[in-house]
Amino acid sequence: MTKLNRKFWGAILIALFLVVLSGCGGTGQSTHSESASNTAAATNSGGTDQAAKDKSSRTEEKLASDAEQDTRIVSTVHGDVEIPAHPQRIVTQGYLANFLALGIKPVGAPYWELESPYVKSLSAGIEDIGQIDGGSVEKMLSLNPDLIVTVGGDEKLNEQYRKIAPTIVIPYGTYHEVHVEMKAFGAMIGKEMEAEEWLAVFDQKVKKAKASIQGLVKEGTTFSIMGPFGKDFYIYGDTVNRGGQAIHQQLGLTPTDKVRKDLINKKINALSISQEKMADYAGDYIFLDISGGAEFDENSPIWASLDAVKNNRVFKLDGDRFWPYDPIAVQSQVEEVAAMIQERQGTTK
């Protein structure tokens, strides 16, 4: 992940922490022409006028139905938004992987999404629109989108986006679970079946990953995700941070009671604590993330006193791979975490 990429994610996460702590537009002309042709043929043949009228009536009904579905209404945090029923030129900020999972390639996305190791191979031909700032407006305009989907954050920018194309704002952290997220996106753009198909494959991969570590971890063993970010130390829950969905939600690895009580039950993504309180949240296994330019002394007495540290049960997370939290990333993280546990236990299945 580039420095700029980490800085961007850092900016988003810092903002989050502060909150925590305080079709197509077709006209149907071809169908109409077919109707006219069929009607003329029926009339010329004689004795089939009624059949022609019936077919013409059905065609007109279809045309009316298609016209009604040229757009759809999507409910958002900023009210209902009318969007194309089948958008063709989507620009996204924060949800590139969601569209790619549904078989849709947007025309534009920020560089920090294009560089994600989970979607890089799928991103050829997608234009880099830069950061979420004023410069992105001009780039979006040049791409002539018919739909913009963004994490938002700056309402002044959102207003400029709305002047370019219908804009759906889905704030960072809106979705905390893969199935809910994929179904929501499928419904939004008329890809419900594709969403269900993708989730079926996802569920099979999760099932296989869980089976691969069955028996390697004793029942009741606890896992926690923690680490320094900048000048603070954080504990993470089971949502958008540091592989939480893969570790706790999908693989079902048990969080500590304190993590469950102070974060998961309260739907808090991250919690800043003093290092003196690390032992209160530390599990039998720890997934450690060191990021945001943090300096962390792994030889400090507090850290070294933790059971997970003393028993070689600490997994260091690669930020490039465990900062992303989109459905494609979670799917891969499930497999990667299972592989970590197998390797640590000296067993592969």
TrEMBL record:
Residue ranges with Basic and acidic residues bias: 51-70
Coiled coil location: none
Regions that span the bilayer: none
UniProt keyword Transport, yes or no: yes
Main location: other
Residues annotated as signal peptide: none
Keywords linked to the UniProt accession: Signal, Transport
Ranges annotated as biased composition (Low complexity): 30-48
UniProt cross-references to PROSITE patterns, sorted A to Z: FE_B12_PBP, PROKAR_LIPOPROTEIN
Family: Belongs to the bacterial solute-binding protein 8 family.
Protein name in the entry: ABC transporter substrate-binding protein
Organism: Paenibacillus profundus
